[in-house]
Each structure stands twice: as structure tokens, then as C-alpha cells.
Amino acid sequence: MNPDFKTNQPIVRFENGVLFETADDYVTETPLTIMVNQEEFATVICSPNQLEELVLGFLASEGVILKRDELKSIEIDEHRGYAHVEITSPLHDRIQLSTKRLVASCCGKSREFYFHNDAAIAKTSMSNIQLTPSQILSMMTRLQAQSRVFQATGGLHNAAISDGNDFYIHRQDIGRHNALDKLYGYCIQRHIGVRDKVLIFSGRISSEILIKAAKIGVGMIISKSAPTTLAVQLAHDLNITAVGFVRDNYFNIYSHPERIQQINM
């Protein structure tokens, strides 16, 4: 596996009125079919790195496993593009394989439409995390500084999980959900609690990304981009602090600002 999950290939470029031959980097994309108890569960299109973390985080976010000891084994066959997973319970006992949508409610608050499994797994945050503005700006600066493959290719999503101080893990993938699943899988593998952690994300905070954050169980998500209206509504309902447009020396807080400490920077 290419450790940088990118390749350099010849191309033809047009620049300043001239066509000429050169080479360029672009990201590697590969399908990974996940087999659970010898049954095909899903095929994920992903970057071919940290695949065990990806599979573990994906299965946890989909409700296939709820804790690490429910996983009996996981084997990655990179050559054929398969992940073979054995869990302690039958697959259909753990998840409803349905694309039907529903409206759920919690504590009298409205809940928008999303997949049945999302409604069952998304958690209302109980996080007590408190961050300063300088911590938020520093984490985003660090994310951008570590995104070297993105800088070379422009073809990846970047994400990190942190406590704002000492703990910081960075992952990249062509899929925005995949990058978050890799972080979740990393924490599950190492029995790292996520409740008082923050997700740092390079892309737009959509409702799907907000629901992913709720499934992981963090109390805060920050991004250099904008949120959507539905994401902000869900963030209010799920007690998640959503922070967007984290750039230079400013950012916007869209929900639950009480987790950001007002102090002199």
C-alpha cells in the first residue's frame, strides 16, 4: 500500500496559452467490501489506509457493534478489497437493514427526518468539554498544517479528534464520513473515551456529518466551512456545539455556545 495513498502520473497541462506534458499527484480510490459473519454488509469507497480503523468505526456508527468486545475478529484483504468481520451476534439481530425514514422525538423537541438506524444510534451529548477560543483556532491550524496529501492533491477530506490539549489524532480520506469513521475506530481500538472530545473537520457541517458526530458521541464539532440549517437544528436538539468558519482569528458558534469560554486571548 502506498503510505501516502496518492500516485504521481503523467498528465497534459494547459497554462499561459501552452499545452505541455508534466506529472501530477492525485489520490488513490478503492472499494472495500465489508463482510459481517460471512454476509455482505456494505461496500465503502475509500482511501486505502487505516482500513481496520475505518471498518471498526463504520460498524460502530451503523450500530453493528456497540462496544469493542462484540468484535470477535477482523481481517483486511487489501489485494481483493474485502474486510472479513466476525461479531458475537447475528447481523440481523443487531441492525435493521432498512432505508425507510422516520420522524423521532426526544424530550418534546422536534427531530428531522433521517434513517431509522441513525435515530436509534445518534446520542444526545452529555459532554462537559470546555474550550477557549485560542484552543479552537490552534486545533484548526494544526489540522491544516498536517493535511500534506490534500495540499499535494486537493482530493481529500481531513478530520481530527482532540481534547483541546494533549490528545490529537488526524486522519484523511476521499470520503468525509470515512475520515470520521477512522477516528472513531482508532478510539474504539484503544478504549479511548470520546464524550469530552471535539471533532475538527475540513468540510461543510451537513446534517449527515452532524449525525455522524452524534453517533460517535462527541460534544463539539468545528469546521473551517459552513454548517447547513438542518445541521444546526440537529446540533441544538442533540446538545452538540457546532462551530464553523474557523479561520485566521475568528469563528462562528451556531449552537450551545456555553462550551466556549469567554476569556482574553
UniProtKB/TrEMBL annotation:
Alphabetical UniProt keywords: Cytoplasm, Molybdenum cofactor biosynthesis, Oxidoreductase
InterPro entries in alphabetical order: Cytidine_deaminase-like, FdhD
A molecular function (GO) term: oxidoreductase activity
UniProt signal peptide: none
A family per Pfam: FdhD-NarQ
Active site (UniProt): C107
Major site of localization recorded for this protein: cytoplasm
GO cellular component: cytoplasm
Keyword DNA damage: no
Subcellular location(s) of the protein: Cytoplasm
Gene Ontology biological-process entries: Mo-molybdopterin cofactor biosynthetic process
HAMAP family in the cross-refs: FdhD
UniProt similarity note: Belongs to the FdhD family.
Function: Required for formate dehydrogenase (FDH) activity. Acts as a sulfur carrier protein that transfers sulfur from IscS to the molybdenum cofactor prior to its insertion into FDH.
Record's protein name: Sulfur carrier protein FdhD
Gene from which this protein is expressed: fdhD
